[in-house]
Here is the input.
Amino acid sequence: LRKMAKKAAADVSKAKRAAKVLKKGPVSKTKFKVRTSVHFRRPKTLQLSRNPKYERKSFASRNKMDKYAIIKYPLCTESAMKQIEDINTLTFIVDLRANKRNIATAVKALYEIDLTKVNTLIRPDGQKKAYVRLTPDHEALEVANRIGII
Here is the structure.
């Protein structure tokens, strides 16, 4: 008897809900948000980070600016020779994209010498020239002989 009473009460409440929905209608009109600006700003949506199914490149590309690409060739003009003799400086034509740090590491690696500083300039013909000043314990004249400038 108690179960039947509960079921009847449940049915009555269900019927009341249905009547309420029927009276109100299935779609209720929502209140519009008041716009405070005349410009429409696109809403910020969820931006997921990339999660690729496979790598687009099978392996990373190698560093194309290695020591052989940075230093093109040494200069052996009269003024370069004078600098070798007077101020212990070697002169190189280098890659246009190389910076002073790149040039310094490349010279150290190629010729096994220590250097104090690197000065660079871009010549009117568009090539980059680097003046590499060696430490006092390394003689530029000896290094130039070993390289084959002289």
